[in-house]
Predict the structure.
Amino acid sequence: MTERPTEPVQLARACSTAMHANDDAARMLGIEVLDTEPGRARLAMTVEQRMTNGHDICHGGMLFTLADTAFAHACNSYNRITIAAAAQIQFLAPARLGDRLTATAFERSRGRRTGVYDVEIHNQNDELIALFRGNAHQIRGQIIPTESEDDT
């Protein structure tokens, strides 16, 4: 077992790094982790041709994936494996080829086993593209294993 970082921000960033290293889908889409803090994460991606739909705008599934990934990094930032119980998204404006999108996830509520997180996606002009809300559920386990899981 490894010794985990003791500072909350260091722990959040270590969890984020470990998750991203194992997230083939996010890496395939070019999603980058910009920053992670306890209960908060900021990720980004650039819209590529392969991400556009039949209307020549970014496919909604790509926006959902970006938001869902930011949500995952925010809710797993406490080193407790947490999964989505539900999620929804509202598309407010189209994202276009070449747009640089940033998804910022914010913790709204966190209880013993559940949480609610909001994610905003903005483009490079700071225009709001989409709003996402995810409901999180903590299960057994840790992102970074320690000698004891009793603290989960």
Notes: The longest helix spans residues 60-75. The first strand starts at residue 32 and ends at 37.
